[in-house]
Amino acid sequence: MELIILGSGGATTIPRPGCQCRVCAEARLKGIPYARSSSSLYVPEVRVLFDTPEEIGSQLNREGINDIDYIFYTHWHPDHTLGLRIVERMYKFWLGRFVRGDKPSKKVRVCALVEVVADLEKAYGGFLSFYKKQELIEIVELKEATRFTVKDYQITPFMVCGGGATAKVSSKRRNSMVSTVFLIERGNKRVIYAPCDVKPFPEIAELKNADLLILGEALPNGPLKEGITIPEDNLLRRELFSMKEITGLVDRLRPSRTILTHIEEEWGRSYDDHKSMEKSYHGKVVFAYDGMKVTV
């Protein structure tokens, strides 16, 4: 199984526009791996994309990716979805449409949990309706904990509710946001992709002993950008994993490898800082970077 981490950054990319801090200044000067775009993952063998951040067009061009068959969305947040226009940019030739009556060259299947689809429609209903009418997308509603087959791959979504417990909920009754942990399987190989808003993590049997865990929103130890420290009783503590929580989770889930992604500019850590941090964890975790290629 081949994977490409197209983007390893968080809601605020590195460099942050207009910011002159040392992390952003270095990223402008050196580029990748010091620069980070928002989180996304691509599986080349089946042309599957997970999430479409605003920078998705640049990410695809950078990696020489020319085709997408499926987009799987983890949740509706803008840093994971605002690049939805990629389907139009790739497969709608407007000149051909108006002069020759061309139809889109492909219809991309947009896949998400039923609850995530509802969130997407609430946030971007006009866009989704337009793209469906233009025959650019087909919406596929996924059922929680139910495998979805793409050729010889099996992709299973597991629900995480609003930073709370994992549970099956009615989209009509819930008042919290839903995010997704995806289990990607091919043969006996198993990868977990959980980039954002997955705390508390669903520690269920299906997600243990994977070959690879890609996990997001790890909070580094010590003060963050501008010397800020998050109080223990702050709301962010319910959303973000401390490094102690990360290592404890890895011990309980027992993946063969763990890669941490969704790395925020506001943590105030450079690429070199993260490489130094890896040493203290003795190979238990490593940090992602844009364009990182992983073989499982």
Summarize the structure.
This protein has helices at residues 22-30, 56-63, 78-81, 86-91, 94-100, 114-133, 236-239, 243-253, 271-280; strands at residues 2-7, 40-43, 48-50, 70-72, 108-113, 137-142, 148-150, 153-161, 178-186, 189-194, 212-216, 218-219, 241-242, 257-261, 286-287, 292-295. It is an alpha/beta fold.
Would you write up a description of this structure?
- It is a single chain.
- This protein is of the alpha/beta class and 296 residues long.
- It has a single domain, classed as Metallo-beta-lactamase, Chain A (4-Layer Sandwich), CATH 3.60.15.
- Helix content is 27%, strand content 25%.
- The protein contains 9 helices and 16 strands.
- The strands form 3 sheets. A 7-stranded mixed beta sheet has the order 6-5-4-3-2-1-16, covered by helices on one side.
- A hairpin with a 2-residue loop joins strand 7 (148-150) and strand 8.
Key structural traits:
seven-stranded mixed sheet, 9 helices, 296 residues, globular, alpha/beta, Metallo-beta-lactamase, Chain A
Helix percentage range = 25-40%
| Order of strands across the main sheet | 6-5-4-3-2-1-16
* C-alpha termini separation: 5 Å
What count of structural domains? 1
Q: What name does the CATH topology carry?
A: Metallo-beta-lactamase, Chain A
CATH superfamily: Ribonuclease Z/Hydroxyacylglutathione hydrolase-like
CATH architect. name: 4-Layer Sandwich
Structural class by helix and strand composition: alpha/beta
Low-confidence stretches: 164-174
CATH classification class:
Alpha Beta
Shape: globular
- The whole-angstrom Rg is 19 Å
Provide the succession of SSEs.
EHEEHEHHHEHEEEEEEEHEHEHEE
Number of H/I helices? 9
Question: Main sheet, how many strands, which sense, barrel?
Answer: 7 strands, mixed
Q: How many E strands?
A: 16
Strand content: 25-35%
